[in-house]
Amino acid sequence: MTRIVNIGEALIDEITRPNTAPVEVVGGSMLNVAAGLTRLGHDSELATWFARDARGDKVRAHAEAAGVTLTPGSDGAEFTTVAHATVDDRGHATYEFDLSWDVPAVEDPDTVGHVHTGSYAVVLEPGADKVLAAVKRQAIRGTVSYDPNIRPALLGTPDEARPHIEAIVALADVVKASDEDLEWLYPGRPVEDVIREWSQSGPSLILCTRGPWGVYIKAAAERDMLVVDPLDVELVDTVGAGDSLMAGLISGLVDASLLGSGEAKQRLREASWDQILPAIHRGIITSGITILYQGAYSPTREEVAGILAADPTLRG
């Protein structure tokens, strides 16, 4: 089985919804993706940064309950990061943070097939330089995926954050971003232009999620961009939806032997839509299931299979 290592944040989300008191739950983009991958049947590890405090104990318990392996040294922080999430009437979340970020070294890096990273892990020091080094090492021998998952409150100005983000984009095989991410990074530029520019810098597959307008996709071996509709479900909460899509996408690409090794890297570079679309649809399905629940719910492979059985056109 492909060894997948996620590098990035695991934290406490303090969630405030309309007319309710704040509630603390375990979250973090990279932990959500790692947990999503285990729920889909993959061995998934997480190199992260939390403390040996009460909140850190919750993070550890959540990761272990999800079957996620924590990289030794991940509990070396002075305090566990808290993301204060405010969810509006439309289910959209905005964030403020009390955080600390560093990252331990991944053990036995030569045995890693795929690395996923994103969010503030690639921008904030002292961890950012270590993440970049790990991605550079992985890009030589295996595959890398990246989700910028922009948090404006943490990243300074777009001009300050852009070089860090573009450095990872150029090293990654798969990049997923939202239209909000791209608008913050490149104000006023059409998302199609940014997708094409990023594609030319190195990635074999780029996705841009656009809410009700679907997912815009660019593959290296295909000339034209593709648009795939979102799953038609009733929105309850967007928390974790992008992470769920990422987990489903990685899962599908690994199962298709398009991620996880140097050979898979080349196959993805040459892959047609017919080869890629089943993984895209798995990601859209997992995301569509997640938004039916409050919080970062991770669907199982059986739930995905149930959606596919009801609508075989989603198979690709």
TrEMBL record:
Domain of life: Bacteria
Listed GO MF terms: ATP binding; kinase activity
InterPro entries (UniProt xref): Carboh/pur_kinase_PfkB_CS (IPR002173), PfkB_Carbo_kinase (IPR050306), PfkB_dom (IPR011611), Ribokinase-like (IPR029056)
Keywords recorded for this protein, A-Z: ATP-binding, Kinase, Nucleotide-binding, Transferase
Domain Carbohydrate kinase PfkB residue range list: 3-255
SUPFAM superfamilies assigned: Ribokinase-like
Coiled-coil features, chain-numbered ranges: none
Family: Belongs to the carbohydrate kinase PfkB family.
Protein name per its UniProtKB record: Aminoimidazole riboside kinase
Organism per entry: Schaalia odontolytica
